[in-house]
Amino acid sequence: MYDVIIIGAGPAGISASLYAKRANKSVLVLYHGESQLEKAHMIDNYYGFKGGITGTDLYRDGIAQARELGVEVIEEEVTHIAMTASMTYQVNGYEGKTLILATGNKKVRPNIKGAVDFEGRGVSYCAICDGFFYRKKTVAVLGNGDYALSEAGDLENIVAKLYVLTDGLDAPETDKYEVITKKIAEIKGDGKVGSVVFEDGSELELDGLFVALGVAGGADFAKKLGIALDGDSIKVNPDMSTNLPGVYSCGNVTGGLLQVCKAVYEGAEAGLSAVKYLKSKEN
Predict the structure, then answer these.
(1) Which long-range contacts (CB under 8 A, 24 or more apart) does 19-26 make?
(2) Would you list the DSSP string of 82-122?
(3) Whole-model pTM above 0.90?
(4) How many whole angstroms separate alpha carbon 156 and alpha carbon 104?
(5) In whole angstroms, what is the distance from residue 87 CA to residue 89 CA?
(6) Which residues share a beta bridge with 213?
(7) What does the alpha-carbon distance between residue 118 and residue 256 come to, in Å, rounded to a whole number?
(8) Which residues, 6+ apart, have CB-to-CB distance to 9 below 8 Å?
(9) How do residues 14-52 score in pLDDT, each as one tens digit?
(10) How many whole angstroms separate alpha carbon 37 and alpha carbon 32?
């Protein structure tokens, strides 16, 4: 059992980990995939680096700093997240007394005709949120990675027929769903999703399409836990707390200024708030 589990190893997540660890708490950081920070060729507006620093160097130095302090940092894609009956949080096979979401916002909209038009009308981004509305119906998950297969797992015992559409890529098949690797040309329907048309002209009738491209982001985790959102951003109080006890969020996933300085501040606030919450439970 960890005191603090943090999802995300960018400036917000690492800053949170440093403050929580310096308060003598056990801290686990999980991260996966490329950080937005790594895409920054040069950062020359951040305090203390007169010649600038590359995003990659700042990202890697932050992780190294956390590890040197004793933070456990593991590269592992998060595919399962849940709150237990005892108000702790399970992330993959780990359990924490508090949880900090610092993933950034990674929702990927497919570049497929009709995808945006049918959002909320058959195109969904959260199986655990909307799966109930498709019970005993025919649906598909769009994606081919662990995130997509996890979404399929949330649907397989609810729907009548389940497909995984990989849009040209490979994915493992089970007896729970059928994999279709053909490239998708268009999503069609009359007011709501009715079918997917492939580039070869064939058509698959569907009641719903769940998009799970890339890896899950902060908003995806928030939906699974029932955390309040403002659009695609997680709603937070000034202390970075969410509407769930012991859950905090920081960095790009909270919206606003998408800068390192803001992420570092919010991470520090989230880490300190998690420590304060833990102390309140000890008394």
Answers:
(1) 19/267, 19/268, 19/271, 19/272, 19/275, 20/271, 20/272, 20/274, 20/275, 21/66, 21/69, 21/70, 21/71, 22/69, 23/271, 23/272, 23/275, 25/274, 25/275, 25/278, 26/2, 26/72
(2) EE-TTS-EEETTEEEEEEEE----------SBTTTTTBTTT
(3) no
(4) 28
(5) 7
(6) none
(7) 27
(8) 29, 30, 31, 35, 59, 62, 63, 66, 73
(9) 999 999 999 999 999 999 877 778 877 788 888 998 888
(10) 13
Tokens of 206: 């569907």
Give the confidence band of 106 by pLDDT, cuts at 50, 70, 90: low
pLDDT digits (tens, 9 = 90+) for 191-249: 999 999 999 999 999 999 999 887 778 888 898 899 999 888 999 999 999 999 999 99
Beta bridge partners of 247: 99
β-partners of residue 165 are 142, 180
Q: 272: closest CA among 20, 99, 5?
A: 20
Contacts of 116 (CB under 8 A, 6+ apart): 109
Angle at 116 between CA 111 and CA 117, to 5 degrees: 130
Nearest to 199 by CA among 187, 188, 181, 184: 184
Q: Report yes or no: 139 and 127 within 8 Å, Cβ to Cβ.
A: no
What tokens were used for 272?
């300190």
pLDDT (tens digit, 9 = 90+) per residue, 135-157? 999 999 999 888 888 899 989 99
Three-state SS letters, 43-77? ECCCCCCCCCECHHHHHHHHHHHHHHHCCEEEECC
Q: What amino acid is encoded at 42 in this protein?
A: M
Q: How is residue 154 written in tokens?
A: 């949330």
